[in-house]
């Protein structure tokens, strides 16, 4: 059984499937009070950089306001799901269910080379679900 972030959410536990995340040029301390209440500071990158997440239209409107003030902002590809925001919380029970299916005795080791090809684990084992 192959489990991906998107497959975890296909069951409808994440009803708000139009999210966005943007990296922008303000640190947490500077942006936290500027964000509308529906937008989360998802990642504290540095004193002059953080990532914000939330409902797509609200985030885009807020980002445009930042850009109008000459504050850097760049979209982060999150496939419409802001994983580092409160909007992912409804999917937590399903995610936990999937995580409990992973055989804890197996070593999970997947690596991708720069060109993106799959390299099997050194011991030949792969992820196995119970």
TrEMBL record:
Transmembrane segments: none annotated. Residues 111-130 are annotated as: Disordered. Residues 30-105 form the Malonyl-CoA:ACP transacylase (MAT) domain. InterPro entries: Ac_transferase_dom_sf (IPR001227), Acyl_transferase_dom (IPR014043), Malonyl_transacylase_ACP-bd (IPR016036), PKS_NRPS_Biosynth_Enz (IPR050091). Gene3D superfamilies: Malonyl-Coenzyme A Acyl Carrier Protein, domain 2. SUPFAM superfamilies: Probable ACP-binding domain of malonyl-CoA ACP transacylase (SSF55048). This is Malonyl-CoA:ACP transacylase (MAT) domain-containing protein. It comes from Timema podura (Walking stick). The lineage of its organism: Eukaryota, Metazoa, Ecdysozoa, Arthropoda, Hexapoda.
